[in-house]
Amino acid sequence: MKQRKLMHTAAAAALAVAGTAVAAGAEEVRVYNWSDYIDESLLEKFEAETGYDLIYDVFDSNEVLETKLLAGGSGYDVVVPSGTFLQRQIKAGAFQKLDKSKLPNLVHMWDVIMERTAKYDPGNEYSVNYMWGTTGIGVNVGKVREVLGEDAPIDSLSLVFDPANMEKLASCGVHFLDAPSEMIPMALKYLGENPDSHDPDVIAKVEPVYAAIRPYIQKFHNSEYINALANGEICVAVGWSGDVLQARDRADEADNGVEIAYHAPKEGAQMWFDQMAIPVDAPNPEGAHAFINFMMEPENIAAATNYVYYANGNKGSWPYILPEILEDPAIYPDEETMKNLFTTTPYEPRVQRFVTRLWTKIKSGT
């Protein structure tokens, strides 16, 4: 789950030499992924190794991707939806089954993650994990403790859902994800309800929770909080694990005195998965399989993890992952924490409409 800069890559000059390209319809592979979600050198490496021209575009929300997929004729060969959206899109017939004979690097995948992604994609017939992580809380440790004291509950959902805390934190800035499929389950967890509830009466219980803290939320979005945290412009962000850790590292590199920490809330955190899949009408399925298999090469997916600071579902990549990433429990949680993570399933259309209206109302504060 990522956002930010747009990337397009053209063919490497050497690959344009006469006689090197394959037939016109097959020479391009078009990939649609979350932005700032890959080491760009991998894009050039794929072109050099396969002879394909890679067209790499980015999106900033699952909703944008889903609109393209369900309208048909997206023009992409590989897309990267999140697990809950993937499940709904599989049911809608948006994807083709993988030809696993063309994916020899499947042998490197991590069984623990494949067991969890099978909840969205039974048998992992349509998709392969790209990255996974948790949704939690990023804090500017110094500012939060200055506002709330040394015993500030920085590892708890009460930090952001207790109005008494949020009223004080508003002075240093709080950002929330604009992602109802993440934020509604989080509030339900805070209330002690089933975070995967599909009952509108249960889901509606989050409205008063958000109404009480809405005046203290500076902004809802899915991208700006990284730099805002890193630069000390805000003190709290409810966001994705890798994003917060990128903010932490940017602050360290800037040596600006900002200490950023990420916590998967002790009450339980949502686990999410971004999955590589091939649209049913992909122009180049052969090239799509080549790209997915390329990204499953342990050294390649490790390079992506080393860039984005997200865990991947490829156990074979571990020897190539930077030790400070592999050994960071905020990225690769320990076994006990893993047991406390939860997943959610997509809402059926009737409930989804209710959730969309509710989230619009929450954001507007009306």
From TrEMBL:
Protein localization: Periplasm
Purpose: Required for the activity of the bacterial periplasmic transport system of putrescine.
Biological process, per Gene Ontology: polyamine transport
Keywords carried by this UniProt record: Periplasm, Signal, Transport
InterPro entries referenced in this protein's UniProt entry, alphabetically: SBP (IPR006059), Sperm_putr-bd (IPR001188)
GO cellular component, one term: periplasmic space
Statement: the UniProt record of this protein carries the keyword Signal: yes
Family: Belongs to the bacterial solute-binding protein PotD/PotF family.
One Gene Ontology molecular-function label: polyamine binding
Originating species: Meinhardsimonia xiamenensis
Signal peptide location: 1-23
Main location: periplasm
Source domain of life: Bacteria
Name this polypeptide is given: Putrescine-binding periplasmic protein
